[in-house]
Fold CubicO group peptidase (Beta-lactamase class C family).
Amino acid sequence: MYFPPIGSTTWETKTIESLDWNRSEVQPLLDYLELKHTKGFIILHNGKIVIENYFNGHTANDTWQWNSAGKTLTASTIGIAQQENLMNINTRVSQYLGTGWTSEPLEKENLITSRHLLTMTSGINDESDLVILPNLTYLADAGTRWSYHNVFQKLMDVVAASTGQTFENYFNSKLKNKIGMDGFWNNGVIYKIYHSNTRSMARFGLLAMNKGKWNNEQIINQTYFNESISTSQNINPSYGYLWWLNGKFNFMLPGGQTSYTGSIVPNAPAEMYAAMGAADQRIYVVPSKKIVIVRMGEASNPANPSFAVSGFDNELWEKINAVIN
């Protein structure tokens, strides 16, 4: 397993031919990516770059927003704070933020743990994505309802309260700097959004493929990371700790309570886990194939931009499979 050096633009590569992949299918993949408003695309194999392309005026040095794919950065940071015994995901949130962090009755607020925020099962009203106190009202008991909601960002406040420093400073020292990412957190309209270049997204994907280990350092506790990429509750089996999971029997989508039969991305390997964000920001991780795939860019369908999972994933995987199989 290759890990690119910290503080260097050097990154070893590997040829299509050395992997016995299908060279003739690469250009159709790239044409599709460009057509679908992609800005940056990378495929790693065993940590080395096999395909790296930039489109539509984007460059290797340009930054772009991760949108909700960055939720996985938050989940990872929570795991680090827990392994340092600064917090516990099974402890109620009010122990860190104080009572009254929601507008729920106290007995309902005290049901909510960090684990509920990690798994989208807080039960907080999801009518508004804007996380302000008046909106954080009771809808269901914690643990009884899965609903994709931006209240996850309260986990950043838990990290700040439990570590005694800002979330960004803790994230930078414990995660970002250790794997050589660039990037920054920017206050978006409704929550903090991470921005970086495409290679930094690939670095995090490589950390994720190695279950939280970078070179010889276990940055994220492996037990916690394995929990992150496993079904976290029995309502939406395709969701871990802010990671999306392929290959389950059914799934739910942001913005609704319908349960759909099958995998979230039928064309992708069943073992795949993914960081997914609005406008089709993606990190796909497939450990058995030793591949990490990153896609950054505008929405593949500007007329109907998705919040997370979209039909784009299945189409893209059809093109990827033609190359790698």
